[in-house]
Amino acid sequence: MTARPATVEEVGRHVGASVELRGWLYNRRKAGKLQFLIIRDGTGFLQAVASEADLPPEVFELCRSLGQESSILARGVVRADPRSPGGYELSLTGLEALQAAEEYPISLKEHGADFLLDHRHLWLRTPRQHAIIRVRAEVIAACRDFLDGQGFLLVDTPILTPAACEGTTTLFETGYFDTTAYLAQSGQLYNEAAAMAFGRVYCFGPTFRAEKSRTRRHLMEFWMVEPEAAYLDFEGNLTLQEAMIVHIVERVLAKRRAELERLERDTAPLEGVRPPFPRVSYDEALRLLEPVEPLAWGEDFGAPHEVAVAGHFDRPVFVHRFPAKVKAFYMKPDPERPDVVLGADLLAPEGYGEIIGGGERLADHETLRRRIREHGLPEEAFRWYLDLRRYGSVPHSGFGLGIERVVAWLCGLEHIREAIPFPRLLNRIYP
Amino acid sequence: MTARPATVEEVGRHVGASVELRGWLYNRRKAGKLQFLIIRDGTGFLQAVASEADLPPEVFELCRSLGQESSILARGVVRADPRSPGGYELSLTGLEALQAAEEYPISLKEHGADFLLDHRHLWLRTPRQHAIIRVRAEVIAACRDFLDGQGFLLVDTPILTPAACEGTTTLFETGYFDTTAYLAQSGQLYNEAAAMAFGRVYCFGPTFRAEKSRTRRHLMEFWMVEPEAAYLDFEGNLTLQEAMIVHIVERVLAKRRAELERLERDTAPLEGVRPPFPRVSYDEALRLLEPVEPLAWGEDFGAPHEVAVAGHFDRPVFVHRFPAKVKAFYMKPDPERPDVVLGADLLAPEGYGEIIGGGERLADHETLRRRIREHGLPEEAFRWYLDLRRYGSVPHSGFGLGIERVVAWLCGLEHIREAIPFPRLLNRIYP
């Protein structure tokens, strides 16, 4: 019987047949004259049974002695076995080691966070990290498919920019030939130019904030998807966000349920993420906070305030109409009450805090110019941005969704560092 | 008759009905008592006919006087008209200006490149730039769909990195708290770690090269898709590239033919992009170059050499087995001839040069370590990368496809600066 190449993911199609898996030895346990090898090949994990009675002595010896994470070609017959995690196992008929690994640093016992982060390149090989990164890829695909389906065009915005969008204290700076460039914290300003050209657009890329904060929910480098639409008002923007979040959650539940199970994520709270999401004004939120985390009017939310407000609801909640002075210069003041802006943050339930920030943008040229001055920003650098209000200004809105925040929430992670393949944290840039 | 909101893209569904377009005035021409307005709304361009006889005087006056790029709500009845570019036009019944633009800087005459680049935020509104950016979005979607369909998992690699992949002279550098970070020129090394964890992976993001070159095909910031696969050899890697390019070209021809027409792109050469692609070794390429652009063995190709070699073929051509000394340290030497590596560049026809670089990677720990030393790279920074050869090393290959290069080729652009929404060129970072 010749062995055909197969992957763990599709092994169920080969029951009774002889296959060859190309992968790595993930784990092994012994039971009398049997060795149980857990083989991983990137698509999944499969148990292979090596029987001393059926194998040549040198092959069985290899099964017994080969180090964790050695690369292997494993041949055997696929058996359906309801007791196995994936429903199948392999009766081993042959094993070949490509490279025998010795003293693999990540054993199957517990390791500290720093040790695991130092070995992120190897830590990614574990079933838990597999599950998270697959959910991440699904979230990203869901964002793209949702926006493409709604007529949004991908228009990439630049990373190297001449000016800061939201202040300069948290910017990474680099020389750019004879001048200085900053790494983008957001693609939004460019998105607005693109929306005036294409109507509905989105950018999707890495963004950077040099914040000296060591929290469970901050990364120095993180991915953000930012839709922006001309002729979209504040209310329409909230409805769009609601539909997008529901789409993402439903898709992950439909396609990545096995991964959520592996992460021991209770999916009940996710099943309840249905529109409409509750909407509370900043003023109403202050009243909710009064007994637990009191906040003076005009102060911005911190993590404890987000968690306390979101704790009142069983699904994501919009907090809208923040004081103008704590929000970015480009937000449109509420015409009925100009001390607050037509912006909203979407807070995830279960303590995960802000996952989206967005709102309607200032469309009036003179007001925008005044705000730029009031914020002490260099008007010259925003000349092109002001042009958007001189040549066919229209009402427009948009938002930014932080991918890692959403992944952490959906996966039920304690720390955002697991939500990205190679996290960049305060003082951590290796590997 | 109430006007329903419609977009130019879907206007054909509303023939005979009264619709409202929300957009901008792109152009106007006069013919007796008629005004022909070209309206754009981001999804397309549509001609609206304003008749003095049918409109209230103040509305006709608005049609006559409103400045280019003013934002407008245009109401009218949709008519099928085979003489119109899109097959439809609008008989105007009402027009409202949201913001009247004056002295729009980009008139419909010719402008110089510097002027247009200074006004990139407005230049994007023209039909030509629309067509290019739509082709770009299609190319990106084609890459993702192809790789997703082939079992590749999106695993994002970091932009902020502690070490350089291909030398430090062309790196953007930034402070990272108490240390220094470099902007990634490629995600490849991290991709290799991801491939050892997930089997088949890709990253897709912006990359950065601080090259002091002012050419038609260099950007300081460009997007690259980089697939990497464990257990994939050199030949398999070429086949994968071929299939991916064919997929991209076929999809753009199928879905963006109108855009290619607008760009006056002769599609005949693209229709001929079918497998197999010709493959010539570096040594064979030198013989082809001898009469026109002679090159000494051991020298790397420049643009003229790429163009001259590609000129011999009617479809993309692989040039393989370059001298080891001109290629990156991680390339696998040909076992039959260690002075050349198992790498290949894919050169586009019609003078567009390299669109892909890739190859099989060095899998042997000791050889890799020696190459790192020979290239004068800091071994400590590559510790994690060397780990991949200590713990389950396998044959693996991958490549990087430059998005803007492919867009420039497919669109037939003279300069790569039009292939990205906001180009970053030597000494240009505005807007």
Provide the helix percentage of chain A: 25-40%
Radius of gyration of chain A: 26 Å
The assigned CATH architecture of the largest domain in chain A is: 2-Layer Sandwich
Task: Give the total of domains of chain A.
Answer: 2
First-residue to last-residue Cα separation of chain A: 44 Å
The major pleated sheet of chain A works out as:
8 strands, mixed
Poorly predicted runs of chain A are none
Largest interface, with counts of residues having CB < 8 Å to the other chain, equals: A-B, 95 and 95 residues
Structural class of chain A: alpha+beta
CATH superfamily of the largest domain in chain A: Bira Bifunctional Protein, Domain 2
Q: What best-fitting shape of chain A do the alpha-carbon axes yield?
A: elongated
> Which CATH class of the largest domain in chain A?
Alpha Beta
The counted number of beta strands of chain A is 19
Kindly report the CATH topology of the largest domain in chain A.
Answer: BirA Bifunctional Protein, domain 2
Strand content of chain A: 25-35%
Q: Care to describe what's here?
A:
- Two copies of one chain form a homodimer.
- By secondary structure, chain A is α+β, with helices and mostly antiparallel strands.
- Chain A folds into two domains: 4-99, Beta Barrel (OB fold (Dihydrolipoamide Acetyltransferase, E2P)); 120-419, BirA Bifunctional Protein, domain 2 (2-Layer Sandwich).
- The first copy, chain A, has helices spanning 57-65, 113-118, 120-123, 127-149, 188-198, 234-255, 257-262, 268-271, 282-289, 303-310, 365-374, 383-390, 403-411, and strands at residues 4-6, 18-31, 34-40, 45-51, 71-80, 88-99, 153-154, 160-161, 173-176, 179-183, 200-208, 221-230, 279-281, 317-320, 333-334, 337-341, 343-348, 353-360, 396-402.
- In chain A, helix 4 crosses helix 6 and helix 4 (127-149) crosses helix 13 (403-411).
- Chain A is elongated, with a radius of gyration of 26 Å.
- Chains A and B meet through strand 2, helix 3, helix 4, strand 7 and strand 8 of A and strand 2, helix 3, helix 4, strand 7 and strand 8 of B.
